[in-house]
Each structure stands twice: as structure tokens, then as C-alpha cells.
Amino acid sequence: APAPDPVITEVQDWNRTLGDGVQARPYGKPSAFEKDVVRRDVEWLTASRESSVNFTPLHALDGIITPSGLCFERHHGGVAEIDPAKHRLMINGLVDKPMVFTLDDLKRFPGRVNRAYFLECAANSGMEWRGAQLNGCQFTHGMVHNVWYSGIPLKTLLDEAGLRGNAKWLLAEGADASGMTRSIPLDKALRDCLVVWGMNGEMLRPEQGYPLRLVVPGWEGNMWIKWLRRIEVGDQPWHHREETSKYTDLLADGRSRRFTFIMDAKSVVTNPSPQAPLRQKGPNVLTGLAWSGRGAIRRVDVSLDGGRNWRTARIDGPVMSMSLTRFYVDFDWDGREMMIQSRAMDETGYVQPTKDELRKVRGTNSIYHNNGIQTWLVRSNGETENVEIG
Ligand code: MTE
Ligand code: CO
User: Fold this and answer.
1) Is the minimum distance from the CB of 291 to ligand 1 under 6 angstroms?
2) CA dihedral (367, 368, 373, 377) positive or negative
3) Do 264 and 218 contact (CB within 8 A), yes or no?
């Protein structure tokens, strides 16, 4: 007979003494045993308050919704701690009636909506352009999150103010110390942009723009202005810093791609991955995430041998347009070395490219819009590394 398991045979503390009563935690927190599941930064990457970023622990999550407290953060001037009573949203420029709204005004508008969308920073995977670098999908792919937003279509507010005939672009402006601004084409604003105050059923977290944020589905995260305080309507883009020197893609011949708003289809295997190695031979669950700024994910293929053979992954959970989509491959591991890859296809038929295919078109100067296929090398002891197949 096997040795008795003390976890079963000995009475544990939690079985012997009373636990806390209900009001010990008026706002609940995760178990103390989950203390390693946190947003993390990379020391040598921008870590000053003028420009800071941390990463979603994708390897420790499942399903498609990112818990509010684990959504990666990207701030160009730190977190603005705004008193909602002192916050206003102004709409001005090429409108019939310039308007100012309080948060309470916005909450009284008819037509409130709830939508789940991914937000991906254009710089996600940017450190991987020239080769494999950071060890963990948290760091290579963790500038993405996916939450439920509650708010109203931006169109509702623009209709209220009345667009002038020559209106073509909007400038969205944040109230934080960076005074972040981005130009947004009017047709996108009218199609599906939202002004939101809610996130996963509660108010936005300060890190995500409390009390108001702009949602720009499928487009680069930089345009999703947090702490939104003003929308100016104009007839052309403003050419501000974030759309000239930043968030443009320098090509090999010295020209730059600009206004590259859409985040193309992308995927990553989150388990196994460097922070979540394989622990046992036999049955294992491979899982990951796929998303596309052009619509819904139609299919995800997974290779265990560096792209030679592919099998179609099983998608589970809702498949929503411009939202993270969860996939699984249930497989038996015999202990052999594997080169794991995933490849997403969206409803437009667009297929996620290899990193080499991307570099052929875009050169090696880029940071933004790296949606190339990721490779994880799983060694025979289960340890997993970020590699590239040359
Ligand atoms: N909005 C304001 N006002 N200030 C900012 O620094 N950062 C932008 C965007 N909106 C930013 C902002 C960038 S680069 C990204 S990727 C997203 O917000 C990050 O959103 P998150 O912090 O919710 O992840
Ligand atoms: Co960004």
C-alpha cells in the first residue's frame, strides 16, 4: 500500500478553527496562495512615471475575460486619480452645439450597451521584432486585455452635438498628466466606438481610465484614450506626437507606415510557455488565445513540430468579434522536445503570418504591429523557452 498522504490523514488548520466572517473582506481579493499571479514589468523597459508599462499574466489565466486587477497598464504620465464629481466630457469643434457632460449626464442617455473587446497595445511583442527576447508570454504578448465594457456609443453624443457637414476626424483627449491625444477617423467613431465608464460590471479601475475611457474596437490601444475629457471634431487629422514620431512603422527604405490603426489577427499559446512549463508526461492541455481587429476568429491551428504539421485547435467559449478567443489542444506528451506554434485565421480569411513573412514586408526597424507566429521550445524536461525558427 502507498504511504498515507498527510494532507488527508492529518487535520489541517482550516478544518479545525473558524474562518473569517463575511465582512472581513468587504471588497474581495484572490487567495493569498495566488500571490504570484500579478502584473509584472520588465526592469530595463520603460519604468518611469513618464512612460511605464506592465504586462497581463496570460499564462495564469483561462477563458477570455481578463480580471480587472490583472489588466496590463500603459501610462504616458502615470495614473490620474480623478474625482468623478470634477470630471467633464466636452464635445467641441465642427458641431452645431458644443456640449459638456458630467458622468451623471452620460448615465442618463438611452441606448446603453455592454460589449467585450480586446485592447492590444501596438507595441505588444515589439521587443520580439528582431528575434526571440523575453522569456514568458506575459512579457512577449501581455500587452493585451479583454474586458466587458458598459457605456454608450460615441455616435449618441456626436448626434446630440450635431456634426457639421465637413466633419471628418475627431481628436480624443485625456485628462492625465500626459494630455494624451489621438486623431480618429469619423467613420470609425460612428461605426462602433464607445464612451465607457464600466468594466467587468463595476466602474473602470483608475489604471484603465476611471471615470471615462474611449473604446476603439480592434484598433491599436494607444487610441483608446483613458481619463477621456474632450472630443474635438475637425476636418483633418491633427498629426500629434502619438501619430507621427510614435505609433508609426519605419520601413527598410526609410519611409514610414502611418495611421496603421487595425490590429491584425494574432494568437499565442499561453500554456505551456516559459512561465508555465510542462510538468508531466501523458495527458496535457495546451491552451492559448487568438484575436483579430478585423472581426471574429474563425480558426486556430497548432503545430507541435515548428510548423511542419498543423492540427485545428478546439475553440471554447464565446467567439465574439474583436474579442479574445480561447483555444485548446488536448494532447498526450511522450516527453519529446516540441516546437509549439499557433496560427490564427479570422473571418476575413486573413491568416497570421510567420515572423519572417512579416520582416520581408516590414523590415527590421519596426516595434509596432508585430503579429508574427510565436514559437515555444519545450525541452524533454518540460522547461519551455522563447525561440525562433531560422
Ligand atoms: N490614454 C491616456 N490618457 N494616457 C495614456 O498614457 N496610454 C495609451 C492608451 N490610452 C494612454 C491612454 C496606450 S499606449 C495604451 S496601449 C492603452 O491606453 C493602455 O490601456 P490600459 O492601461 O487599460 O492597458
Ligand atoms: Co500602447
Assistant:
1) no
2) positive
3) no
Query: What architecture is domain 266-387?
Result: Sandwich (2.60)
Cell numbers at 244, concatenated: 507621427
**Closest Cα to atom 21 of ligand 1:** 73
How many Cα atoms within 13 Å fall on the side-chain side of residue 181? Answer: 16
Neighbouring C-beta atoms of residue 320, cutoff 10 Å: 18
Q: Nearest Cα to 224, choosing from 146, 319, 312, 141? A: 146
Domain with CATH 2.60.40.650 in the chain: 266-387
119 lines ligand 1 (CB under 6 A): yes
Backbone angles phi, psi at 223, to 5 degrees: -80, -15
Tell whether domain 74-257 is in CATH 3.30.450.20: no
CATH 3.90.420.10 region(s) of the chain?
74-257
Residue 170 near residue 80 (C-beta atoms within 8 A): no
Question: Nearest residue CA, atom 22 of ligand 1?
Answer: 73
Please name the residue that has the C-alpha cell 489577427. 265
Is beta strand 228-234 parallel, antiparallel or unpaired with respect to 89-93? Answer: parallel
Q: What are the E-state strand segments in 106-193?
A: 113-120, 144-153, 169-174, 181-185
Residue 263 DSSP class: -
**pLDDT value of position 50:** 82
SS3 300: strand
The pLDDT tens digits for 355-369 are 999 999 999 998 999
Give pLDDT tens digits for 180-199.
999 999 999 999 999 999 99
**Ligand 1 atom nearest 145 alpha carbon:** 24
Residue 303's nearest CA partner among 334, 340, 338 is 340
Q: Which tens digits make up the pLDDT trace of 48-71? A: 888 899 999 999 999 999 999 999
Nearest CA to ligand 1 atom 9: 222
DSSP for residue 188: H
Is residue 350 within 8 Å of residue 143, measured between CB atoms? no
Taking the C-alpha atoms of residue 334 and residue 44, their distance in angstroms, rounded to an integer, is 38
Cβ(327) – ligand 1 distance below 6 Å = no
Supply the DSSP symbol for 65. Answer: P
Element (H, E) at 45: none
